[in-house]
Design brief:
With 352 residues, the chain is an alpha/beta fold. It contains eleven helices and twelve strands. Helices cover 31% and strands 21% of the residues. The chain has an eight-stranded mixed sheet, with helices on both faces. The structure holds iron/sulfur cluster.
Length: 352
């Protein structure tokens, strides 16, 4: 079990995730792609989920939707409001998807059926969940959701290949909000778009989130985008939640070296000095290091890090991380300050 989640002030959470695990049973052995992840999300909150490829972000998103297929297996509990998704039978979870929890997929082109008009693809979601809805109401609702994502009603008559990348992504957002779910997972919704369209798409998601009071989980790699869009940020590494907390607090005072290194690798216009990536690669989930999974890449690793898996520790009411530095005087902040003082030239040169 992970540490108890400290209570937050405010309304009851709309999403509650308790010790969520995803295991894949392969010929090479058991692989845990999501490892005892716990967090809560309030109504209308925006949570960012970052981490390198293979960190378990998309696996966790699929697990929240109960879309992990065999040989994958889910354990733990996921609640949307009072409804426990993890205990639902197949019919109940089919009804809950898109109605309680929706998803904006990563690749809009492959998410939309290329040989079916947009109208039919939106109608499909409405009619599966509300089969008694009259045709006129379906038609009106399609026009309404297209307008909500700033697309003309005539777009309903087109095929996906007749739309630009940004328009396709807007159609995916329209489908995700068509039934007004309480939670939306947006899995790298702007990854294939140019920066202008990225901004427009994120503005649309942000506006809909406010208007419908939907809680949003935004998955991505772009720490700059996260800094602008989300209220809270969570960082995953090798299937585990390394750190979670208010976005401003994580950027100002990260308590896990991986969070700190992700933030340090973010290029900024005013930043002068060496542009530093994170050395090494994420470990294979089939042969994880002992103790802390990040220790082979961590510049602050200590002897205990190879022996003991760090437990989650709270830093205030809504900030947690798993790092042995939390038990060392000065913590990560002290180590960063000591490092900067001992190698003043390390940040000179490089990109400016
Ligand atoms: Fe680094 Fe040790 Fe913290 Fe892991 S527990 S992140 S190896 S300092």
């Amino acid at each position: 079990m992970t540490a108890a989640v400290p209570s937050r002030e405010g309304p009851a959470p709309v999403l509650r995730v308790e010790d969520l695990c995803v295991d894949y049973f392969t010929d090479a052995g058991r692989l845990r792609a999501c490892d005892q992840v716990s967090f809560e999300l309030g109504p209308g909150q925006r949570l960012g989920l970052v981490g390198e490829s293979g960190s378990g972000k998309s696996t966790m998103a699929l697990a929240l939707m109960r879309m992990i297929k065999p040989p994958g297996k889910i354990a733990g509990r996921v609640f949307v409001g009072d409804d426990e998704l993890t205990s639902m039978d197949d019919n109940a979870i089919r009804s809950a998807r898109m109605r309680l929890i929706g998803m904006v997929p990563q690749a809009a082109m492959s998410a939309l059926n290329p040989v079916i008009r947009i109208r039919a693809q939106i109608a499909d979601v409405l009619q599966v969940h509300e089969p008694a809805m009259p045709d006129a109401q379906v038609k009106a609702r399609i026009a309404e959701v297209l307008e909500a994502v700033e697309l003309r009603p005539e777009v309903a008559n087109l095929y996906p290949h007749e739309l630009s990348g940004g328009m396709k992504q807007r159609v995916c957002i329209a489908i995700a909000v068509a039934l007004r779910p309480k939670v939306i997972i947006a899995d790298e919704p702007t990854s294939a778009l140019d920066v202008i369209v990225q901004r427009q798409v994120m503005d649309t998601i942000g506006r809909l989130q406010r208007e419908m009071n939907i809680a949003v989980i935004l998955i991505g790699h772009d720490m700059g985008l996260m800094a602008q869009f989300v209220d809270r940020l969570s960082v995953m590494y090798a299937g585990k939640l390394a750190e979670i907390g208010p976005t401003g607090e994580l950027f100002a005072r990260p308590t896990h070296p991986y969070t700190h290194m992700l933030i340090s690798s973010l290029p900024t216009l005013g930043k002068k000095g060496v542009f530093r990536g994170i050395p090494g690669i994420t470990p294979s989930l089939l042969s994880l290091p002992s103790g802390c999974y990040f220790r082979t890449r961590c510049p602050y690793a200590m002897p205990i890090c190879s022996e003991v898996t760090p437990a989650q520790q709270a830093h205030g009411t809504d900030h947690r991380s798993s790092c042995h530095l939390s038990n060392v005087e000065g913590g990560l902040t002290g180590r960063i300050a000591a490092e900067a003082a001992s190698v003043p030239d390390a940040r000179m040169g490089g990109f400016s």
